[in-house]
DNA sequence: GGCAAACTTGCGCAATGGGCAACTTAGGTG
DNA sequence: CACCTAAGTTGCCCATTGCGCAAGTTTGCC
């Protein structure tokens, strides 16, 4: 029915759910319980995506999404705090990927190098999202409350990234924070451009271009 | 009762309300009607601020704010779409100031120069916010939904600023957008730092410092 | 004075988020 | 395997919210 049902989500649901609500509460990684939770979360996400793309954010109720995923409205709340969060599940996953990747870079690398190499190694992940995705994203971008929720993700990411940069020796605090915020702005802006020009240039290339402009300010 | 009732708002409510809901609907600038509207908006804003600082965002209902400002809950909705918007009224006003200022710079100035001069001329406006404000802001910053709504303001600002930079000859689109986003990141980060160190360094100085770091990437 | 536009208010309604308690199920234990 | 416990699901309930609508009320202007 949908050629790319989870085009906007993380390809393979990258584990780590552990406790239907955020709290880490230990659980067998491969257990049935865990797999079911991930499946439910994914189902809710995809249902939300499908319905919202069809009817617009305002035209879809939480109940409708829950129904489409065969769970109760109450259960929806157990997984996501609202429609926005369900829709941005994929973005959150990508955020975790990004953080995991950059954290696993050699500790000796400077912030800028770690950033550059991280983007290089995620090239495939981000570049893989094929055509059609831009069109969908264009629709979703219309919804103000979504952009806003996106902001929450970036804010969190910025905090984490700043900490990572500080750990890599960025000083002073202002510069570390600025570096993190600026890198994320590069990603945001590149993505916006990518959507606008309908994927004409591969996303990773646009990010590279943006980072290249910033290089004179931060490359050590 | 409150030493700085509107510390977070714009000092003098910079006119331009014109139509209780956004839509510009012509109205005498000095008329009683217009003055009442501005007063009501300001009263709602201050009531929101006071109550939220006391009881936390979740601990205050729209109704309580409306009561404190002597209007009905329904009227609150006529002015603001929610608690967050009421709280951020001051930020929106500052955003408009900023845009008005930069737009009125000579058209021949490059984006970077216009930006620098705008910050210089707003130095007093932003620097004037005295001590105590940082403490309040620190409290407000705890509320996730507020940061998120702040993001909405910045997003809008980024769009407008990008357009302004394009008008001033910034190319290509990616660079113009990146420049706008980066400048705003500088402001955001500087403000965060300012709050964190409790106003030790004047905000304008921190913004200058941030912009100085970025200079190598954008100064033409 | 008097009219029209603008604003306020109360009422109603659907949607939402979240607490609570009963029920169901996965996972480990003797 | 029977059994127990913790985790997850669901229905029920309620306070809050955003908004449309249709009176009232006020302001601005001829």
H and E order of chain A = HHHHHHHHHH
- For this structure, what is the CATH class of the largest domain in chain A? Mainly Alpha
Number of domains of chain A: 2
- So, CATH architecture of the largest domain in chain A? Orthogonal Bundle
Largest interface: A-B, 33 and 33 residues
Which topology of the largest domain in chain A does CATH recognise? Tetracycline Repressor, domain 2
CATH superfamily grouping of the largest domain in chain A:
Tetracycline Repressor, domain 2
Mean of all residue-level pLDDT scores of chain A? 89
What integer value in Å does the Rg of chain A equal? 18 Å
What structural category arises from helix and sheet content of chain A?
A: mainly alpha
**Structure annotation, total helices of chain A:** 10
DSSP helix fraction of chain A: 55-70%
List low-confidence stretches of chain A. 1-7
The oligomerization state is homodimer
The number of strands of chain A is 0
**Biggest sheet character of chain A:** none
Q: Strand content of the residues of chain A, in percent?
A: under 5%
Shape of chain A: globular
Q: CA-to-CA gap between the ends of chain A?
A: 50 Å
């Amino acid at each position: 029915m949908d050629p790319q049902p989870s085009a906007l989500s993380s390809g393979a649901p990258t584990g780590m759910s552990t406790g239907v609500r955020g709290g880490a509460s230990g659980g067998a990684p491969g257990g049935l319980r865990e797999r079911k939770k991930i499946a439910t979360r994914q189902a809710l996400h995809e249902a939300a995506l499908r319905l919202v793309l069809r009817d617009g954010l305002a035209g879809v109720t939480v109940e409708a999404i829950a129904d489409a995923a065969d769970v109760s409205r109450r259960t929806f709340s157990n997984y996501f705090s609202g429609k926005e969060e369900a829709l941005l599940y994929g973005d959150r996953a990508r955020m975790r990927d990004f953080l995991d990747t950059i954290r696993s870079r050699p500790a000796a690398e400077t912030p800028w190098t770690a950033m550059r190499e991280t983007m290089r190694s995620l090239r495939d992940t981000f570049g893989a999202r094929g055509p059609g995705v831009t069109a969908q994203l264009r629709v979703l971008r219309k919804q103000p409350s979504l952009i806003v929720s996106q902001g929450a993700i970036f804010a969190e990411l910025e905090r984490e990234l700043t900490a990572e940069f500080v750990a890599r020796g960025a000083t002073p605090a202002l510069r570390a924070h600025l570096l993190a915020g600026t890198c994320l702005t590069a990603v945001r802006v590149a993505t916006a451009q990518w959507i606008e020009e309908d994927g004409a240039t591969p996303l990773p290339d646009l990010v590279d271009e943006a980072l290249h402009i910033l290089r004179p300010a931060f490359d050590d």
